[in-house]
Amino acid sequence: MNKKYYHLIVLFIVLLGCSNPTDVNYLDIIKSYPDYEYENTNHLPQFTYADSSDVNLVALKDTFNLEEIAGKGDEISQIVNLMEWVHTTIRHDGSSQNPYPRNTFNIIKVCKEENRGVNCRMLAIVLNEIYLSCGFKSRYVTCKPAEKDFDDCHVINSVYSYQL
User: Fold this and answer.
1) How do the pLDDT tens digits run along the chain, 164 residues long?
2) What span, in angstroms and rounded, lies between the C-alpha atoms of 95 and 87?
3) 78 vs 74: CA distance, rounded Å
4) For 108-140, b where at least 16 C-beta lie within 10 A, e where not — what string?
5) Does domain 55-159 have CATH number 3.10.620.30?
Protein backbone atom coordinates (compact mmCIF):
# COMPACT_ATOMS: atom_id res chain seq x y z
CA MET A 1 0.00 0.00 0.00
CA ASN A 2 1.20 3.48 -0.81
CA LYS A 3 2.37 5.15 2.42
CA LYS A 4 0.59 8.41 1.62
CA TYR A 5 -2.73 6.53 1.71
CA TYR A 6 -1.96 5.08 5.10
CA HIS A 7 -1.19 8.53 6.52
CA LEU A 8 -4.39 9.89 5.01
CA ILE A 9 -6.38 7.08 6.60
CA VAL A 10 -4.85 7.78 10.00
CA LEU A 11 -5.54 11.51 9.60
CA PHE A 12 -9.11 10.75 8.50
CA ILE A 13 -9.71 8.59 11.57
CA VAL A 14 -8.29 11.28 13.85
CA LEU A 15 -10.49 13.91 12.20
CA LEU A 16 -13.53 11.70 12.67
CA GLY A 17 -12.94 12.09 16.36
CA CYS A 18 -13.95 8.53 17.11
CA SER A 19 -14.53 8.26 20.82
CA ASN A 20 -13.67 4.57 20.66
CA PRO A 21 -10.96 3.45 18.20
CA THR A 22 -12.51 -0.03 18.14
CA ASP A 23 -15.52 1.51 16.34
CA VAL A 24 -13.37 1.82 13.22
CA ASN A 25 -12.61 -1.21 11.03
CA TYR A 26 -9.12 -0.20 9.91
CA LEU A 27 -8.66 -3.21 7.66
CA ASP A 28 -11.81 -2.40 5.66
CA ILE A 29 -10.67 1.20 5.20
CA ILE A 30 -7.22 0.15 4.03
CA LYS A 31 -8.66 -2.53 1.71
CA SER A 32 -10.70 0.17 -0.05
CA TYR A 33 -7.54 1.59 -1.64
CA PRO A 34 -6.54 0.04 -4.99
CA ASP A 35 -2.82 -0.14 -4.11
CA TYR A 36 -3.50 -2.30 -1.06
CA GLU A 37 -2.70 -5.98 -1.53
CA TYR A 38 -4.28 -8.19 1.11
CA GLU A 39 -2.40 -11.33 2.08
CA ASN A 40 -3.87 -13.97 4.35
CA THR A 41 -1.41 -14.52 7.19
CA ASN A 42 -3.24 -17.34 8.95
CA HIS A 43 -0.39 -19.68 7.98
CA LEU A 44 2.14 -17.73 10.04
CA PRO A 45 3.01 -19.02 13.51
CA GLN A 46 1.51 -17.23 16.51
CA PHE A 47 3.80 -14.56 17.94
CA THR A 48 4.81 -15.12 21.55
CA TYR A 49 6.98 -13.25 24.03
CA ALA A 50 9.75 -14.93 25.99
CA ASP A 51 8.56 -15.71 29.50
CA SER A 52 10.34 -14.02 32.40
CA SER A 53 10.88 -17.47 33.92
CA ASP A 54 13.34 -18.35 31.14
CA VAL A 55 16.64 -19.27 32.84
CA ASN A 56 18.61 -16.69 30.83
CA LEU A 57 16.16 -13.92 31.67
CA VAL A 58 16.13 -14.88 35.37
CA ALA A 59 19.95 -14.78 35.38
CA LEU A 60 19.85 -11.35 33.72
CA LYS A 61 17.35 -9.98 36.24
CA ASP A 62 19.34 -11.34 39.18
CA THR A 63 22.81 -10.34 37.91
CA PHE A 64 21.88 -6.70 37.38
CA ASN A 65 19.34 -6.39 40.24
CA LEU A 66 16.72 -5.27 37.74
CA GLU A 67 13.78 -5.46 40.16
CA GLU A 68 15.54 -2.89 42.34
CA ILE A 69 16.33 -0.72 39.31
CA ALA A 70 12.71 -0.91 38.10
CA GLY A 71 11.55 0.22 41.53
CA LYS A 72 8.24 -0.18 43.31
CA GLY A 73 6.35 2.49 41.39
CA ASP A 74 3.65 1.99 38.82
CA GLU A 75 4.21 0.15 35.55
CA ILE A 76 5.16 3.23 33.54
CA SER A 77 7.75 4.40 36.07
CA GLN A 78 9.28 0.90 36.08
CA ILE A 79 9.47 0.89 32.27
CA VAL A 80 11.11 4.34 32.30
CA ASN A 81 13.52 3.42 35.12
CA LEU A 82 14.74 0.39 33.18
CA MET A 83 15.13 2.44 30.00
CA GLU A 84 17.14 5.09 31.86
CA TRP A 85 19.36 2.39 33.38
CA VAL A 86 20.21 1.04 29.92
CA HIS A 87 20.86 4.61 28.74
CA THR A 88 23.31 5.28 31.57
CA THR A 89 24.92 1.82 31.44
CA ILE A 90 25.71 1.68 27.71
CA ARG A 91 26.81 4.61 25.59
CA HIS A 92 25.32 5.07 22.11
CA ASP A 93 27.81 4.95 19.25
CA GLY A 94 26.21 4.52 15.85
CA SER A 95 29.51 3.77 14.12
CA SER A 96 30.57 1.00 16.52
CA GLN A 97 30.94 -2.63 15.41
CA ASN A 98 28.31 -5.00 16.77
CA PRO A 99 29.70 -7.47 19.31
CA TYR A 100 28.92 -11.15 19.03
CA PRO A 101 27.07 -12.88 20.56
CA ARG A 102 24.34 -10.27 20.58
CA ASN A 103 22.91 -10.63 24.05
CA THR A 104 22.78 -8.31 27.05
CA PHE A 105 25.51 -10.02 29.05
CA ASN A 106 28.00 -9.86 26.20
CA ILE A 107 27.06 -6.40 24.95
CA ILE A 108 27.52 -4.86 28.43
CA LYS A 109 30.76 -6.81 28.95
CA VAL A 110 32.26 -5.67 25.63
CA CYS A 111 31.23 -2.04 26.22
CA LYS A 112 32.90 -2.01 29.66
CA GLU A 113 36.05 -3.87 28.60
CA GLU A 114 36.57 -1.76 25.47
CA ASN A 115 35.20 1.48 26.95
CA ARG A 116 32.85 1.98 24.03
CA GLY A 117 29.25 2.18 23.01
CA VAL A 118 27.04 0.35 20.55
CA ASN A 119 24.50 1.25 17.90
CA CYS A 120 20.75 1.53 18.34
CA ARG A 121 20.15 -2.13 17.41
CA MET A 122 22.40 -3.37 20.22
CA LEU A 123 20.81 -0.94 22.66
CA ALA A 124 17.36 -2.17 21.60
CA ILE A 125 18.41 -5.80 22.07
CA VAL A 126 19.60 -5.01 25.60
CA LEU A 127 16.49 -3.03 26.51
CA ASN A 128 14.25 -5.74 25.06
CA GLU A 129 15.91 -8.47 27.13
CA ILE A 130 15.77 -6.25 30.23
CA TYR A 131 12.03 -5.67 29.77
CA LEU A 132 11.35 -9.35 29.11
CA SER A 133 13.30 -10.36 32.22
CA CYS A 134 11.07 -8.10 34.31
CA GLY A 135 7.88 -9.54 32.81
CA PHE A 136 7.07 -6.77 30.32
CA LYS A 137 5.97 -7.82 26.84
CA SER A 138 8.59 -6.25 24.61
CA ARG A 139 10.18 -6.56 21.21
CA TYR A 140 12.58 -4.52 19.17
CA VAL A 141 11.45 -3.09 15.86
CA THR A 142 13.59 -2.14 12.87
CA CYS A 143 12.38 1.12 11.33
CA LYS A 144 13.22 1.37 7.66
CA PRO A 145 12.75 4.41 5.44
CA ALA A 146 10.14 4.43 2.67
CA GLU A 147 12.83 4.28 -0.01
CA LYS A 148 13.69 0.82 -1.34
CA ASP A 149 17.41 1.54 -1.51
CA PHE A 150 18.81 2.66 1.83
CA ASP A 151 21.93 2.09 3.86
CA ASP A 152 20.74 3.09 7.31
CA CYS A 153 17.81 2.40 9.60
CA HIS A 154 16.83 2.86 13.22
CA VAL A 155 15.86 0.28 15.84
CA ILE A 156 13.48 0.96 18.70
CA ASN A 157 11.62 -0.98 21.40
CA SER A 158 7.92 -1.58 21.64
CA VAL A 159 6.85 -2.46 25.17
CA TYR A 160 3.26 -3.25 26.13
CA SER A 161 1.69 -1.34 28.99
CA TYR A 162 -1.40 -2.68 30.73
CA GLN A 163 -1.68 0.69 32.50
CA LEU A 164 -2.01 2.55 29.21
Assistant:
1) 445 455 555 555 555 555 555 566 777 777 777 777 777 777 878 889 999 999 999 999 999 999 999 999 999 999 999 999 999 999 999 888 899 999 999 999 999 999 999 999 999 999 999 999 999 999 999 888 777 777 788 899 999 999 88
2) 17
3) 6
4) bebbeeeeeebbbbbbbbbbbbbbbbbbbebbb
5) yes
- 8-state DSSP, 87: H
CB 155 within 8 A of CB 124: yes
SS (H, E, C) 33-68: CCCCCCCCCCCCCCCCCCCCCCHHHHHHHHHCCHHH
For the chain, residues classed under CATH 3.10.620.30 are 55-159
By the 8 A CB rule, do 87 and 98 touch?
no
Bridge partners for 159 per DSSP: 138
Separate counts of helices (H) and strands (E) for the chain: 7, 2
Report residue 28 CA to chain centroid gap.
27
Give, in order, the Cα–Cα distances in Å from 11 to each of 24, 25, 26: 13, 15, 12
